[in-house]
Write a structure and sequence with these properties.
28 strands; Methylamine Dehydrogenase, Chain H; 4-stranded antiparallel beta sheet; 1 helix; 6% helix; mainly beta
Length: 341
């Protein structure tokens, strides 16, 4: 009987330790491997890794000095700037070597020289962005109509617009004619036909997660990862029919997500200074592998699938005024944060 009780106690203790390890920031294989203070004026939003071109693009929007700063993805040495682009996000077509930014008008440039090719007039308020390799088009997202403007990446011509039925945040493509977009104000995922530019379905998050601020995709197994604000949850769905598979906790203040098919891990970045790592053990089995301690404000991210590293951006801030989420960013405190093993 004593041996039985001892075994039971050991088992309970082991489970408790496992749960604690899962919840403790920093417990796991990932850590901040590099932080580079690049400074400069301007705010920040999305960060984008051009994995093929080995460049890191960071929009620095603002009243003055708005631009896109460009860094070498491996050394993080500055490469150059794209001036006069008051943008929130960036996407690149690796075949045509054309880059696009969600400024108004949209700026299109040559990724080899960083020379501006043209500007493209769009309606709405450009924010998020996606390059879809299915037909080499760039999707520019706006919280107001039209919710998406679709641009041909080869010549910058406008292919059409899409009413997504709400305010889009992040989007993903399987490269086979399907695009999914998280609709932040409607708590759903819009499934869109990339050929016809028609919404085929809305996947309701069914109260499991609200205000999705990030979206990632496992293309091979057709799994969507919707990173939500309230509650702070990763809702994991079947991309083909929208059926919810499971939910897992993430950090507070999410604004970006990504998936690395080489490691079978999904990531979500949060303003509370955490990067949540979710391991896909199988298409039906998922677990929180780690909550990596990054930096407060590091709420957006991008994955370099060549080095298996995650890049985020942030700065140092004054205490937030009453009723506001964050204070003012201190001068020259802007930094690039790199997470890896």
């Amino acid at each position: 009987m004593q041996q039985s009780r001892l075994g039971l106690a050991i088992g309970i203790a082991a489970l408790a330790l496992a749960a604690l390890a899962q919840q403790t920031p920093g417990a796991g294989p990932y850590k901040v491997v590099r932080t580079v203070k690049v400074g400069g004026v301007g705010g920040f939003d999305y960060v984008y890794a051009d994995v093929d071109g080995r460049r890191l693009y960071i929009p620095r929007p603002g009243v003055t000095g708005a631009r896109i700063t460009v860094f070498d993805l491996d050394s993080l040495a500055p490469v150059g700037e794209i001036p006069n682009a008051n943008a929130r996000g960036v996407a690149v077509d690796p075949k045509s070597h054309h880059g696009f930014a969600t400024s108004k008008p949209v700026v299109m440039w040559d990724t080899k020289t960083l020379a501006i090719i043209k500007t493209i007039d769009v309606e709405g308020g450009p924010d998020g962005i996606l390059f879809d390799p299915f037909n080499s088009r760039v999707w520019v997202f706006s919280h107001r109509a039209p919710n998406a403007t679709v641009i041909d990446a080869k010549d910058g011509s406008t292919a059409g617009t899409v009413d997504l039925g709400g305010a889009p945040e992040q989007a993903v493509s399987d490269g086979k004619g399907h695009v999914w977009v998280d609709i932040e104000d409607k708590d759903n995922i819009a499934a869109v036909d990339a050929k016809t530019l028609k919404v085929m379905a809305h996947y309701d998050l069914a109260g499991k997660g609200g205000g999705p601020g990030g979206l990632a995709l496992d293309e091979k197994h057709h799994i969507l990862f919707a990173a939500c604000h309230e509650p702070a949850t990763m809702v994991i769905l079947n991309a083909e029919d929208g059926k919810i598979i499971t939910t897992l906790p993430i950090g507070q203040g999410v604004d970006g997500a990504g998936f690395n098919p080489h490691t079978m891990e999904a990531f979500s970045s949060q303003g509370d200074g955490t990067l949540t790592v979710i391991k896909e053990n199988s298409p039906t089995s998922f677990e929180v592998e780690q909550n990596v301690k990054t930096r407060p404000g590091a709420r957006t991210m991008t994955v370099d699938t060549k080095t298996n590293q995650v890049f985020s951006i942030t700065g140092e801030f004054t205490p937030p005024p009453p009723g506001q989420r964050r204070g003012q960013m201190l001068p020259d405190s802007f930094s690039i944060v790199v997470v890896g093993k």
